[in-house]
Amino acid sequence: MLIRNFIAKGSERRAVDKHSLPSLVLPLVLLGLGTAWILFLNSDPSVSAVFTKCFPLDEGDGVGDGSDGSDGETTTPFLATIPIVGPPVCCLVSFFRAALDSHRSAIIMGEILSYVGALLTVTTLESARACNQSSFLIRNPTPSWLLFNLAGGAVVWQLAIIPSFLSHERKRQRLPPERCNSVSVNSVTAAQRQSSEEQQALLGPRGQEQQQQHEHMQRHLDPVEPPAISVGVVLGYFVPCMLFVLASGTISILVWLFFPAYSSIVRIAVRRLLRVANPPGAAAGSSLHPESSRAAVLWLYLVPMLWSVVAHWLLLYNIAIVPDDRSHTTRAALGFIIADFTAIGLSVVYWMFAETGWRLALLSLAAGAVLGPGAGLCLAWVLREGIMASTEGRLGKQKRL
């Protein structure tokens, strides 16, 4: 309760309420330009040399002939023979092989992946909320995630994903006041339903259309979504991540690159199975506010938080006790990844600051320092929802006045 009150005091005047969209996006654009410049400065010839086997000069140059006896050295260049997509995919696989080529680097990557898992969880959760269905990018996160993982990196977050959330939040402020509460629709009594039906009859077509907009803006989602999202993230993301980190071969890296598609497919499949398993009458018209349900919170955040805590403290132990075994090439490749994800972390902190105030952003950083960045983000997102709901209620009262 004390934490919620502390955060709520800092969210009374949000940046997203006070500033125009171009003003809100400008820091992200500058951060994106700065990220590109830092990544350019961090480029290293040893990393560039890793890509050379993906672009053989001729068939007799000896690259990828298996003379060194390494399966990775023979399999990875084979990807370059695939028309069009082969060389870029080969470069990605070779880059991650170089970045994971030590015990320390694998542990560092586990820490980074915990944060990615938390981001995947919260963006998938937001895509399922009724109030976000009018935004194409928020409603369909998979294309943006694939672009991020295969090509764009931090720039996708800075110039596409986060601006879409800020833009959508500003649009929501200009709509009529809606009923955004944390009570499930299933708890509405028969008398309340009858009263609602009478109100709709009195409202007429125009009023009913506005009422539908109000219902659409709720922060609820389908009750089957929390388990579906959880299973999708675990099977579609964390399982490939385990193979990616513990057995960093060409095949495991290649499989991991497309985790956004796996997570989405598993989520859709589980959601359909749960809908088939539930009686039609029980599922019809039902909705759930996930942050108001302990079971839903556990479904959504338990695995990402556990992964984050374990990865974080394993990294701290490794840094304190175990000697660094990274080569120069591994350091350079991993440094590139660390710089990119540092930029993503700063962008997400700014996102939370713009929507909920500086106190929640500070809490996310403090919790991340103790529990890992993934757990810090999950904890902040649960608290963020309370701020978003209370802010909508306050704005609704102002509009009525």
Automatic annotation (TrEMBL):
Regions crossing the membrane: 21-40, 78-99, 106-125, 145-166, 228-259, 298-320, 332-354, 360-383
Entry keyword Ligase: no
Keyword terms of this UniProt record: Membrane, Transmembrane, Transmembrane helix
Keyword Chloroplast: no
Region (Disordered): 196-219
Protein name in UniProt: Uncharacterized protein
